Structures are given as structure tokens and as C-alpha cells.
Amino acid sequence: MKELIVVNNLTKKFNLSRKQQKIGRTKEKVKTAVDDLSFTCYEGEIFGLLGPNGAGKTTTLRILSTLIKPNNGDCIVNGKSAVNEPAAVRQQIGFLTSELKLEDFFTPNYLFDFFAKMFGIEPEQAAKRKKDIFERFGIDKFAEVKVAELSTGMKQKASLAISLIHDPKIIIFDEPTNGLDVLTAKVVTDYLLELKQEGKTIIVSTHIFSLIEKICDRVGIIIDGRMTLCDTLKNVCAENDLETVFFDIFQKVRGDE
Known about the structure:
Elements: E1 3-15, H1 18-24, E2 30-42, E3 46-50, H2 57-64, E4 72-77, E5 80-81, H3 86-90, E6 93-97, H4 108-118, H5 123-137, H6 152-163, E7 170-174, H7 182-197, E8 201-206, H8 209-215, E9 218-223, E10 226-232, H9 233-236, H10 242-254
Parallel strand pairs: 3-8, 3-9, 6-7, 7-8
Antiparallel strand pairs: 1-2, 1-4, 4-5, 9-10
């Protein structure tokens, strides 16, 4: 299998304000969100990054997506460095996060066309892709409705459509089903499996065991910014279910906390 994403010794630290120290009940002035993290994703697979809130999953994906830079290490995405060649990496990835906020005043139609122009997609190609994706997710019925008036699920679908506007080879989803109702969540997960069948490489971060078990080929368990286990789902769950494996690891890492 071709190594499409290689994360090498990734470390990211954040300075903590006094308020953040108080909230976190710590006197430490620096928080290490990602701690010497390494893993590999192969072409045509769905890789799950599993961990509790605050484990470093989102930070890792933001570095991988070139939104922030690490203190140390790098992510090589299809031969391009996220640190040194961010523009080349962005051309190859689609990144969807629950933190992505579409401007309330605009419509899905306008936003899709705007980002299509940003990516330099020809009008005819953009129109065809919009038709396909909008119909696939039922956005076509709400194409001229302002984002502020859309449901949470429809906003997520519109964000998904815009993230995939350039038909990226690599798709990165941070908590793809977070805040969605069960019907919309199923639409999203089914679509991820379809994208895999098309040969896309997909990374999802989540704290939901069932999502990993349903769609992922391989899983990396991250706790306190460190990779504690990374293997095929079949090997990880050879003797116990994923939830049991995770909490066994978590207890060993955290002790009696």
C-alpha cells in the first residue's frame, strides 16, 4: 500500500493565559497538545484518530491541514510538506470541522460558487459538481436559503459540499457526526464509505467508538497528545471490542485519575 500521509514526530505547544491556567487548574504556562506524534495513513483507506476531548486530535488535524504550524515535526501529504509546502497540500485535501462557520448572510449557492472560483475550477465543471453534491445531500431545495435560516444538519451538509468542492484526493474530518441527528449522521457516514470506494483517503477524528468500528480500516488511539496504539481495526479488536481496548489503555496511561 502507498503511504499517502506520514506524520513524523509532531509536537505542538500552546502558551496558557492566566484565565486558561485557572480553568485548567494548573500553574503550567505551556500546554503540550501534541507530543512527538507519528503515524501513517495509506492510500484508499479510512483512518480513525480516536481519543477523548482534549487528547490533541483537532490540533493534529489542523496541523495536517496547514491551519497551524507545529513546534517540531512535519506532515508529509502525498509527498508534500505541510510545513514547507502548505499551498500544495491544500490543493490535495478537503478539511471539514465543526468549527467551520459559514457566513450567515450568504446562501449555499453563493458560497459554493465563491469557493469554486477560489480553487480555479472551471464554471461548467463547478456547476456539474454542485448539482451532483447538492442533489446527493438534499441541499438543492435550500440552495437559495441563507445559512442563518438552515438547520444544523443542513449547515453541516453545506459545509461538507464546500469542503469537497475541488474533489480532493484526501479528506480530513474532525468529528464528522458531532451535533448531528441520527439521520444526517447516517447520510454523512454512508457518504464517507462511498468516497472510500472511489479511492479517496480519509482521516476522521472522533471519540465515538461505533463510528470507528463502522467505517475505519485502521485506528490510532491518542491520549494526552501521544499515540498509544496504531494498527488495523481487526488487530486492535482481535480479543476485545474497541471500547474495552480503549479504556484498558486509558487506565494504564492515566492510572487512577
